[in-house]
Predict the structure.
Amino acid sequence: MSGEGPALGARLREGDLGAAPAALNLLESTAPADRDEAAALMRELAPGELGAEAAGHVVGITGPPGAGKSTLLSALIAAWRGRGRTVALLAVDPSSRRSGGSLLGDRARIEFDPADRGVLIRSTAAGERLGGIARPTRAAAEALAAAFDVVVIETVGVGQAETEIADVADTVAVVVQPGSGDVLQFLKSGIMEIPDVLVVTKADLGDLAMRTRRDLTAALRSLGSRSTKVLAVSSLAPPSGIDELIDALESHRDGLDVTARRLAARRAGALAEFAAEHGERGLRALGGRAGAERLLAAQDPGLATAALIEVLEDALGEEAR
Ligand SMILES: Nc1nc2c(ncn2[C@@H]2O[C@H](COP(=O)(O)OP(=O)(O)OP(=O)(O)O)[C@@H](O)[C@H]2O)c(=O)[nH]1
Ligand SMILES: [Mg+2]
């Protein structure tokens, strides 16, 4: 149906959350006609069109398998709803890479009220790239941030997964469980980037959780990081530390130059997508990474990531001619 993309974009821009499921379907569709509609949808929600960056807070939650991310998100969603915030959760499912699509699978296990129109939960495939944020997920986060107060992207892993999520999220929280020495080592050795917030889950386990928190705090200090807060939370009833975590996420966002971070994120995201699709040869045709970056820097800062990818691809087309 022609015109569907702009109409959905306009509804999201006006805060109509009911438009979100259809918008996500469109962004995930691979049908050529839908690709055009999806591009039109993103144009409606580009910062240039909105007159500002989308107001929603994009939060990345990442951590090793079994760390307690989904249970934590159930508690966070309840607490955000208690504060009157609307929440969209994009759960990136690494196991569905090959099937190319997924329903709300086992991995999500998020508890929420299905009758609550202020919560949207979508499980999405990780895409072809290992640890990657698929192009539709990036676009979905950008689009939903125009309508929801909080947009969460949940991914599994540390290291690469965390680096990718930092390109999309305003605030990145890494979730670890008590006794997770591997994460501590990753942090110390620089394999892992320093997150904005570190969360030790399963605080109800007691001493081990407290020791992990102390070790992580000490490691951060030795790396010279003063701003990263390390919190211990328990997500099982009765939950503890959840409000403090919400406050920590918000205070990070309050201290952020959102315009600068989002602009840098869109450029980095466009470059990553282009490099993933067209490889080193594609980059060379644009004068290497530096050439592509120069081209991106010359574009209107109000363009959505999808439009920036188009700019790079058009330039590649010119080169080939
Ligand atoms: N004691 C305790 N157990 C918890 C807590 N949070 C989560 N768990 C348990 O830890 C296990 C893993 O929790 P999930 O929330 O599924 O972890 P996840 O990080 O989403 O796991 P994946 O989706 O597989 O990566 C489950 O058995 C939870 O019940 C907590 O605060 N305290
Ligand atoms: Mg999970």
